[in-house]
Amino acid sequence: MKASESYRNRIEFLQGTLDMLILQALQWGPMHGYGIAQSIRLKSSEILQVETGSLYPRSAPTRATELVKSKWRLTESKQRAKFYETTPKGKEQLASDHKRWQQMVQAIAAIMEPGKEQT
Q1: H helices, E strands: number in the chain
Q2: Which of 10, 21, 40, 70 would suit a FRET pair with 101, their CA atoms being 20 to 30 Å apart?
Q3: C-alpha span between 53 and 61 (Å, rounded)
Q4: Distance of alpha carbon 6 from alpha carbon 2, whole angstroms
């Protein structure tokens, strides 16, 4: 596999994972982009660092607008910001993504830890 293909595969994997993490973060309540990034960073014990600039393009495609809705509101510091929350379709997508993620984790564990019983 060429380096460019490997990079593209990594980006596609990360983008799918980022979508799932954004939907999960929004389960904790409506948030603006910076709040989503901070939530992911804090909940992951600062292992996952998401740049807010990488979040905004995720909300632009038509598919995303079916999963997430937005509304302009004031932040705690009285600045105007777009707050996002999941739609019912977004909640369904999160459940589906979570199931697929669990299957992926089990498959990787089976390879990385052969002989260990999978649940």
Answers
A1: 5, 3
A2: 70
A3: 15
A4: 6
Q: DSSP E strands: which ranges in 27-110?
A: 31-32, 68-74, 80-86
Task: Report the C-alpha gap between 43 and 27 in whole angstroms.
Answer: 13
pLDDT of residue 62: 45
Q: Is the pTM of this model over 0.85?
A: no
Tokens representing 28 are 């904790």
Which one-letter amino acid corresponds to residue 24? Q
Give the domains, in start order, of the chain with CATH numbers.
3-112 (1.10.10.10)
DSSP-derived secondary structure letter, 117: P
